Amino acid sequence: MKARIIVTLKTGVLDPQGKAIEAALKSLAIEGIDGVRQGKVFDIEVSATDGAAAEATLRTACEKLLANTVVENYAIEIL
Amino acid sequence: MKARIIVTLKTGVLDPQGKAIEAALKSLAIEGIDGVRQGKVFDIEVSATDGAAAEATLRTACEKLLANTVVENYAIEIL
């Protein structure tokens, strides 16, 4: 079973990497970008065949390793 | 207008970062993960109000900066 986890910074947390990308886009003369925030995506192959079990495994993975829940949110999508 | 760009490695391209995450999950005793591939997500605020114009801007941004199209795919979602 395939799943996708998206980890993004919480609102209000500064994102210098996003700011750098925004500045780089401006310097490339790409206009009309008002803000950029960068996050991470994990495409995961899970061996569980039932959705609830897969989601439980992935939630543990997020809490323990993939996301820093102090400053990041995560979303799990089973595909 | 908000948009999300997801950049992932093309199939067949080695992903040592993904492999490291997979190994780290195993060492944390999180079982049932058969594969991990990491990508990037960009949450972008675009000033264009029409979807086609926004998508054109974002496509240029991907081609010029956000994705290395030799080894990466990108997907643009207007939210």
List keywords for this structure.
PurS-like_sf (chains A, B), phosphoribosylformylglycinamidine synthase activity (chains A, B), Phosphoribosylformylglycinamidine synthase subunit PurS (chains A, B), nucleotide-binding (chains A, B), ligase (chains A, B), 79 residues, homodimer, 3-stranded antiparallel sheet, alpha+beta, Mth169, Chain: A
Query: End-to-end span of chain A in angstroms?
Result: 7 Å
Tell me roughly what share of residues is in helical segments of chain A: 25-40%
Task: Please state the oligomeric state of the protein chains shown.
Answer: homodimer
How many runs of DSSP E, i.e. beta strands of chain A?
3
CATH architecture descriptor text of chain A: 2-Layer Sandwich
GO molecular function, one term (chains A, B): phosphoribosylformylglycinamidine synthase activity
Main location (chains A, B): cytoplasm
Subcellular location (chains A, B): Cytoplasm
Subunit structure (chains A, B): Part of the FGAM synthase complex composed of 1 PurL, 1 PurQ and 2 PurS subunits.
Characterization of the model:
- The structure is a homodimer of 79-residue chains.
- By secondary structure, chain A is of the alpha+beta class.
- Chain A has a single domain (2-78), classed as Phosphoribosylformylglycinamidine synthase subunit PurS (Mth169, Chain: A, 2-Layer Sandwich).
- In chain A, 35% of the residues lie in helices and 37% in strands.
- Chain A has two helices and three strands.
- The first copy, chain A, has helices spanning 16-27, 51-66, and strands at 2-9, 33-46, 72-78.
- The model of chain A has no long low-confidence stretch (mean pLDDT 96).
- Chains A and B meet through helix 1, strand 2 and helix 2 of A and helix 1, strand 2 and helix 2 of B.
- Strand 2 (33-46) of chain A pairs antiparallel with strand 2 (33-46) of chain B, so a sheet runs across the interface.
